[in-house]
Design goal:
The chain has 347 residues and is α/β, with parallel strands linked by helices. Helix content is 39%, strand content 18%. It is built from 11 helices and 15 strands. Strand 1 (7-11), helix 1 (16-26) and strand 2 (31-36) form a beta-alpha-beta unit. The radius of gyration is 20 Å and the shape is globular. The relative contact order is 0.13.
Length: 347
């Protein structure tokens, strides 16, 4: 039996992934309903940058995903072919400050949506944006769909609850529910609170003479940095598979925060030399001798997985997932976007 995606619900439409996914779907003729938190003004700068804010096929509605009744009402009335659940608390550091809030935003919201689908729209397909943080500090590298799950941060626990719920509702109730285990995925639409965008915006400001340096936390943490546009395309493909399943989305290449910073500075012609150790380490501009990167011990997390790198062989075979940008190209793309915003007065 053929299946056609005509109308999709995207929770968290104003975030990086939500905006990119909406643009991806609209470009393929899919009508999109996006959600934002009740009582908030839509932060639509990403939708505007992607030139979809005024698309007549895009509708924005208010939804608190932690409200089960509201989820049931929207799902019951929406006639959606697919639900992409991207909304939630997305920052590991914030989860240490508010673990209960993270559990509600990421875990409870997923259960509410699954229950709404089970009771009111069992034929609608769901794709969850899970996270590599569900692996904790794995002994196995790279990580794949069979790697044991041992979340160590409150954020990881909240995403593990969501991920496990998708598998449980799929097995118990037959829902077409899939989980995208997302490793770090970046773009020029990343929020400034994330370290990658903090770096690229800082580099752009330094290049324009607006700042002299940036302050970071753990430089040794290694992550698998991919391009967010590739990831949302894979999530859209997951919804169209005949059978629901879980997929690791990753590049298979790990880089430290130190390496990402070096790639970002290289994008503006600045080579960094790293000197010192621990919180005394600095990144020094090789040409001028000016310190461009310093460490602030207060930015170190209580727990930071030393190495997260994924094996996306399953997604390559089933979804055609292929990373399109390496680390240098990704950092350069983000820096160039921030330079353009600064020059236009919009950053």
């Amino acid at each position: 039996m053929s299946w056609s995606l005509r109308h999709a619900l995207v929770t968290g439409i104003s975030g990086q992934d939500g905006a990119l996914l909406a643009a991806h779907l609209l470009a393929r003729g899919v009508a999109v309903t996006g959600t934002q938190r009740p009582g908030r003004t839509l932060d639509d700068w990403r939708l505007r940058e992607l030139c979809i804010a005024d698309d007549s096929r895009l509708r924005i509605v208010a939804l608190d995903p932690t409200d089960g009744g509201a989820c049931a009402e929207l799902i019951g009335a929406g006639a959606f072919d697919a639900v992409f659940h991207l909304a939630g608390q997305s920052r590991v550091a914030e989860s240490f400050r508010d673990p209960l809030g993270s559990l509600a935003a990421n875990g409870r919201s997923t259960v509410h949506l699954l229950e709404a689908l089970r009771l009111h729209a069992p034929q609608t397909r769901l794709v969850l944006a899970a996270s590599a943080e569900i692996f904790g500090a794995p002994a196995q590298a790279p990580q794949d769909e069979g790697t044991p799950l041992a979340a160590r941060s409150p954020y990881g626990v909240s995403k593990l609850l969501a991920h496990a719920s998708v598998a449980a509702w799929r097995a118990s109730y037959g829902l077409h529910a899939s989980s995208a285990i997302l490793f770090n995925h970046e773009s020029s639409l990343r929020d400034e609170a994330f370290v990658t965008r903090k770096i690229t915006l800082g580099v752009a400001r330094i290049a324009r003479g607006l700042e002299s340096g940036i302050v970071l936390g753990n430089l040794d943490a290694k992550r698998d940095f991919g391009y967010a546009s590739d990831f949302v395309a894979a999530m859209a493909a997951m919804a169209q598979r005949e059978s629901a399943d879980d997929y690791v989305l990753a590049t298979g290449h790990a880089a430290s925060i130190r390496e990402f910073a070096g790639a970002a500075f290289a994008a503006v012609g600045c080579a960094l030399d790293w000197r010192g150790r621990g919180v005394e380490e600095v990144g020094v501009d090789r040409a001028s001798g000016v310190i461009r990167v310093r460490i602030d011990g207060s930015l170190l997390r209580p727990f930071d997985a030393p190495l997260l790198v994924g094996n996306a062989a399953k997604a390559r075979a089933a979804l055609g997932f292929t990373p399109s940008l390496d680390l240098a190209a990704l950092a350069r793309t983000m820096v160039e976007a921030d330079l353009a915003r600064l020059d236009a007065g919009s950053a």
